[in-house]
Amino acid sequence: MGLVVVSPLALPALDGGGEDWERIGNIAQAYGAVSALLSGLAVVGVAASLVLQAREAKAARAQNGRALHMELMKLAMENPEYLDCWGGPDSSRTVLLRRQHLYVNLVLSHWEVSYELGNITDHWVAATADELFAGEVGRSFWARARASRIATAKTRRSRHLQQIIDSRYEHALLTPPRTAPALPDLGVSGVTPPRVGDSESSARTDT
Prior knowledge:
The chain starts with a helix and ends with a helix. It has 8 helices and no strands. The radius of gyration is 33 Å and the shape is elongated. It has helices at 2-6, 11-14, 21-78, 95-116, 122-132, 136-151, 156-172, 196-206. 7% of the residues are buried. The longest helix has 58 residues, at 21-78.
């Protein structure tokens, strides 16, 4: 850019000290074309920078909105008295099921953010959705939320994500949900976990 600025001062030198003004004029025209090109590139660079900044600001606002939404749902999960603020009383679900549905919604929202950023693949989503829909809670949530989630997907990637999840839900319905009770947690008050000696003694008795 500096060479372009000072180049008019060097025009007479380029002529070799003669009086060929026609040649000098041609050089000046070439200088004007190069200058216009560089100016155009500078404008394009500024425009691209502004577009990039606008996209980053929009992404930041979206991320902040999702974070606030998650915090509000976590409050409702931790304080059942807030559940009725999300759609009013619901006689079709227990308080526990409503809290579980809120948690599943948080999980799917996390998937959506990660998928938009390219951090998870289609294969990962499909495999993890299979685990989600293996149980009744995941199935009952998607049965209630699938229409609104598919309809409100704004981006192409978000719509594709909802399609993957919905296809795995349809596939899961081909088999009954898991109903076997979970193993007792060691840290749950009032639950006595089986001891190693007891299991070994039971095994010897069975044999």
